[in-house]
Backbone:
């Protein structure tokens, strides 16, 4: 049976989706504990350990988990990873689409946060031990990050992480229809991308303005869902993303 055919999953698209996406945001430990408890017996329970590892900065546990390891296994080129990602994302119309949407959202968020940690927030991690090698040594990754021809800064590191994150959070965002707050991550991904460019094009600036509007709409929708009766989670929605 599909998820929609099981009575226990009737509220899943509303409550579980918002709760899972909130678990990926920077919330208080009390809010996170409440959210993870609410997810522990739902369809997304298998992904909760990866969310916890992500919050602890354990990217090795996330990328080497059963959910994502096949993306990088035996990949000889970074392009192979992008092809695998696009193939998976093109098959999101399956019966398990809801769970697959969130699996891919978690992957995209993990890639983006690893990129942010390596370039801004720290602490410095050991890429050879914490990241799949194909996401560390990929000189051609920068060619996927030149909108309008503007090259990334020579000071930016681990560009493959951002390039792969963009495939999920930007290019495939419309396909992640189960994810209510994907616009927040799309905005965040484009914002961080703009920060590593030598010059920001007018098109990217316009995209950021449009995305900010989408974020506000998504947050208002999610707020309405929470106020409609998701237990144990109140006043935890963030504002528009900013680096």
Residues:
């Amino acid at each position: 049976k599909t998820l929609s055919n099981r009575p226990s999953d009737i509220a899943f698209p509303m409550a579980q989706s918002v709760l899972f996406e909130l678990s990926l945001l920077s919330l208080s430990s009390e809010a996170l504990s409440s959210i993870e408890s609410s997810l522990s017996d739902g369809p997304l329970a298998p992904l909760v350990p990866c969310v916890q590892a992500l919050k602890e900065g354990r990217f090795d546990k996330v990328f080497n988990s059963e959910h994502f390891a096949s993306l990088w296994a035996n990949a000889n080129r970074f392009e192979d990873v992008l092809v695998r990602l696009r193939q998976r994302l093109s098959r999101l119309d399956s019966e398990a689409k809801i769970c697959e949407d969130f699996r891919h959202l978690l992957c995209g968020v993990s890639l983006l946060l690893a990129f942010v940690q390596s370039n801004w927030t720290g602490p410095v991690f050991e890429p050879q031990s914490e990241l799949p090698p194909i996401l560390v040594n990929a000189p051609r990754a920068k060619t996927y990050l030149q909108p309008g021809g503007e090259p990334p800064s020579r000071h930016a590191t681990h560009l493959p992480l951002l390039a792969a994150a963009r495939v999920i959070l930007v290019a495939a965002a419309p396909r992640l229809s189960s994810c209510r707050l994907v616009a927040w991550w799309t905005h965040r991904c484009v914002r961080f991308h703009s920060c590593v460019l030598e010059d920001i094009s007018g098109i990217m600036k316009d995209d950021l303005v449009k995305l900010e509007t989408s974020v506000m709409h998504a947050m208002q929708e999610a707020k309405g869902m929470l106020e409609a009766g998701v237990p144990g989670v109140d006043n935890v929605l963030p504002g528009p993303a900013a680096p």
Observations:
- Residues 18 and 222 are 7 Å apart (CA to CA).
- The two ends are 42 Å apart (CA to CA).
- Confidence is low (pLDDT under 50) at residues 1-14, 231-236.
- The first helix runs from residue 12 to 23.
